[in-house]
Structure formats: C-alpha cells, structure tokens
Batch of 2 targets.
Target 1
Amino acid sequence: MLKKEDLKNISFNYDAAVVLDVLRATTTITTALKNGCRGIIPAAGVEEAKELALKDPGLLLCGERAAVRLPGFHLGNSPLEYKAETVKNKKAALTTTNGTKTIKMAAEKAGTVLIGCLLNARAAAGRLKDFSGDILLACAGTKNSFSLEDTLAAGMIIKEFLLLNSINNYSGRTLAAARSKNTSIYENEIPLNNNLDNQVILDDAAAAAYRLALYYNSRTLDALYDSLHGQKLAQMGMHDDLIYCSKVNSCSIVPVYKNGIITT
C-alpha cells in the first residue's frame, strides 16, 4: 500500500500491519520510545490532540502541519527534539499531517499494528516473523501521493524479512517454476501460496519496494534527498533530520499501537 488513502479501499483483514512515515512521524515515534517515553497517543487532528492534553495536564502536546511545529505545542515532529531529558517517563499526544492518521486507519485493517522506519527495519522484520498470515506494509505517502522514502523503508523491511527466511534474492522466476507444479492459479490477481514451503509471496507494490531497496541499499540518505518531501525539509534547513532518519538498522525498538496508545 503506497499511500494512506489506499487503506480506504481495502476490504481484507491482515494479521499485522507496519505503518511507515519515514519523514518523520514513525521515525519520531520510534526515537521517543527508545529514549524512554512511556507511550504516544496518535491523534488524527489538532483538536483531538488538544482535548487529550486537557484531560491529562502531564501529557506532552506534540505535532506539526506542513512540517512546522503547531503553535503552543511542546514539541514538533523532528525526532531530534525527542531527547531522553525531554520525554523520559512521560506520555505524549502526537498529531502529524500523514503518519498519525495512517496509524489509526491501519488499526481498522490489521490485528496488530507495528511502527516502522528505516531505523528499525531489521527489528521490524524480526517481529513480523511472529506472524504466519498476510502482512500489510502501510506507507503514509504525502498529499495522497506515492512517497519515495516510505516505499524505500517498506522495501528495506521486506529485504530483511526475506533474509530472515533464508531468501537471499527474491525471484519471480523461481516462484513461477515451483508454482507450475500446482493446479490452482491466481484469481482476481490475489496471491496464493499454493503450500510452497519456505516462500514469501510479494504483490507488485511489495516487489517494487524491494527492488527500490536493493537499488539504494546503503545510500539511504541519497534516497531521502531524492524524495520530494526530503527536498522540502532540506529547503527548510532540516538536513540533520534527513541524516538521522536515514540511519538504517540503527535501532532495535519496534513500537506497537494497541488500545489507542503506542508503546514498546
């Protein structure tokens, strides 16, 4: 799924979903919890976040619109703001342009919702090993459009997941050869595993994300600068955010959204 709006068209229920908003909501959430935040409540809108803060005066009020911290809020959406001395042992309400909405929407489509980014790609893939059914990688996108950085992160998770399943190179040719021995075929373009042992089936979007990850590989910062939203942040002087958000596999924390709050 390449943008949050695609979630509206999904009628299928997934075992697990990983929400990705690399620049910067899911990176910020992961960082805050890594630095000792007790939990983050995602709010779809500004007023919802303010109402949460009114009910709990000890709550950090955090969020942005158009990449800028909201007036009167304690913190914005830069992961560099969420230092241990600021967030340790505290809870926060967070509202962002795309990421927090995607988290809440994904929870309607999946039994478990994980928070992913480049920082925790390998750790997220490890958590996905616990699920045997269908997995949704939910990219937030930007303004109802495909975003390079979120799709890259999805591809990185797929790459790590394949390696954990001893698949060094995903090959449609290999799958096709194995599948030719089965009588059942795809109907309505829905993937079937056909009881193929030790195989992972990618849909077209997932296969494209995987190939994107192979292309950029260790050049994740280049990818963030190539992205349109990365260009916007750079123009706003947020180069340090781009550098931080590009640090693939630098964190072992995988946040989980459950019962209205994100924790570890």
Target 2
Amino acid sequence: MPIERLVFGGMPAVVASSAMLDVLERARRAAHASIAVLITGETGSGKEIVARAIHHYSLRCSRPWVDINCAALPEQLMESEIFGHEKGAFSGADTAKAGLFELAHTGTLFLDEVAELDPRMQVKLLRVLDGVPYFRLGAQKKIQVDARVIAATNQDLDRAVGTGRFRSDLYHRLGEFEIRVPPLRERPDDIIPLAEYFLAHHSDQAHFSGAAKAALRQYPWPGNIRELRNAVVNAVISAREYEIGPGDLPARLHRGGLRAVPTSGLRLDGREREAILTALDRTEGHHQRAADLLGISRRTLTRKLKLYREQQADPADPHREISLAP
C-alpha cells in the first residue's frame, strides 16, 4: 500500500487511504481558483492539514498564512483580533494593532471553527468577503485587503442556518467550494501509517505487534487523529518491551469500541453525541478535561450539551441525563 508523506506549512501529513488522497486532490484543484473554501469534518480529522495544503498549492504559497480558532477567544475580543484596533479604541488598547485580515494581505486567512462566530461578527465578515473596506476599531480610515479566506467547521452548517445560528448568506459565501474531510473510521488504511508515524517520534526501536495493529484498526476513533496520537503516546509509556502489544494500548480499545448510547429523538449527529458522553464518562463529568480529550474548546462543549438537551424529543426520556455542571 503506497503511503504519501507530505509537509504543508511545517505540518506533516501521512496519507495512505484513497479517501484522503481524493481530499488532497480536491484541495489541489481548489488552490488554483480564487474562491473561498469551506472545509467540514469532525474534530481532529485533519481539516487544518487540508487548509494548509490549499495554501501550499496556491499562487499565494509564498505569502502570509494566518490562522485563528474562532472558539478560542472571548466574543468581546474577536472583533479586535480579526479587524484590528487603534490606540485608545477601548480600555487596555495602549497601542494600535493590525487585525488578522491585514496580516494575511495577499496571503491566506484560515478561520477554524467558523460556526462559533457571533451574529454581529458574521455580518462584518460577510461584508469583507464581498470586498467592502472596513474600519479598525476606533479608526477613521477604511482598510482594503486582499486575503483568501478558508474556513473550517465540525458542525452541520445547513442545520445551523435552519436554526438561525448561522447566516445563510455567509454560509454560501464561505462555501463556494466545499471539501469534506472523512473521519478516521471511514479511512482505516490511514490508521496504521499514522500510528507508526507517531510512534517513530517517540521511540526509534519500538514497533506494534500484529495484534496491536488489529486493535488499532478495529477501534472507531471518535477523537480521530488526536485520539490516535494520544493512544500511541500512552502505549509507548506503558510498554515494557520494544514490541507494543494490545495490552499496552488504552483499555477502551479492548472494550469493543464505544458503548452504544440511545440517540432517538436527536437531530444532531449521534456519533458526535456518543463521543461527548463517553469523554464526560472518562473525565467523571469534568467539562474542561472532556473538551481537551475531544480536541474542542470548553465553550463548544457547553454549547453542544445545551443543544442536545434542548433537542431531545421527550423531556421524560429515560435515557441518561446530560450534566451541564462544570
């Protein structure tokens, strides 16, 4: 089985599956068109790698690459971060600061978790994408930028538009070309090459036994590549021999994958809910540790838990309660 080992913007990509090779081919084609690209897929599936591949293959490859996780900053700081501010624009603004759009001028701006933008920011972003000049906070002179925007989300934006959480015009503006990154469970041919890549970074002598490889392949990897990397690191630490066996892998890999969680009456993806509930089980309900395990922000986790509760079809559902406690 041929294995592609690529590097995009300093980030390595190990690809063996036909599914991911197709994704990279779509990224290569999108790179040559001056359009916005929306990358969708589960948390940890490799969306940033695809975004960097688009920049790498584009004519802007030698120009700036700027990225931001839209869920990582408080809403009150997001506007300043993206559009910049002048000195004295607000309390604590002791100096002027260029926004990310300015820093990405002639290059690429990557907006990760774009669905987390609040409605006011969605309006401002849409205007800039339409080529309208904008003000820094506190400024009197407008700025015109030329930055290609690539956005990514792990949410169903069609559904977010339907519930009013995301603007339909922004969705269609961002999604001029859409690329879906399949989860790791849909590309099992990538599991062992990725695991061996992570293993080589922690040990130059360790190797997986055949049984360990089988265990790695049969597990559904709800946390995708991040969870696989963590599992390999844990195995290296646990192993007493250079050969890593099934017993050195995390215990959850031996329990037949994730336990089934009833999902009737839910409109959100059942696998996502299952992964979140399992992460909460493993961390005894601690939201921050569960978010870290899933590779998402605590804000995203809290929002999803509220949505799950709101969208249960029957308030008297006998299935387990979802705790909203911190």
